[in-house]
Recover the amino acids of this structure.
């Protein structure tokens, strides 16, 4: 009887220990899994919640731009990461309409964000990815883009053309903050 009771106590202890270690192992696995996955999720979601800085950037002297011409201009992103290097550079299509009026179009297609190019002859913006086409004023002429090209604000200050940088719309659901 005594031996039987001892055996039962021993088995009970063993079961308790096993279930304790099983639970401990599950908890540790969960913690390790979270430590691996959470930084990745944070990295992916951070740009959605981060408010992008907006700044005026100088593009050049007014006289450097010919009236009626649409040219590619390069400038630095509104808030480049310290490690961004050359990827901090972005671009826009700038048109000098008259003496003091400029229009700056985003180079990013409103379908999936590919860079559009300006075709001087037919006066169209063409997207190389899926055949999106935009008229001279940025409105959609054909293809999959659902909306016109985005525009940046432009101003002339002290003889320089300045562009108001903003976050690049990565998809058709994101738009510039015009405030
Ligand atoms: S990204 Fe321009 S048409 Fe698809």
């Amino acid at each position: 009887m005594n031996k039987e009771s001892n055996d039962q106590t021993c088995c009970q202890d063993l079961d308790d220990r096993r279930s304790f270690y099983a639970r401990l192992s599950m908890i540790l696995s969960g913690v390790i899994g979270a430590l691996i996955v959470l930084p990745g999720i944070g990295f992916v979601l951070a740009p959605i919640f981060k408010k992008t800085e907006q700044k005026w950037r100088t593009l050049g002297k007014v006289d450097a731009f010919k009236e009626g011409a649409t040219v590619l201009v390069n400038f630095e992103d509104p808030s480049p990461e310290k490690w961004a290097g050359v990827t901090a550079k972005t671009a826009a299509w700038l048109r000098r309409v008259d003496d003091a009026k400029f229009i700056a179009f985003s180079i990013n297609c409103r379908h999936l964000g590919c860079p559009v190019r300006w075709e001087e002859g037919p006066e169209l913006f063409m997207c190389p990815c899926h055949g999106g086409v935009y008229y001279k004023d940025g409105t959609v002429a054909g293809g999959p883009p659902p909306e016109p090209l985005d525009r940046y604000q432009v101003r002339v200050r002290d003889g320089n053309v300045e562009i108001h940088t903003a976050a690049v719309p990565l998809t058709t659901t994101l738009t510039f903050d015009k405030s």
User: Anything to note?
Assistant: The chain has two domains: 4-47, 55-165.
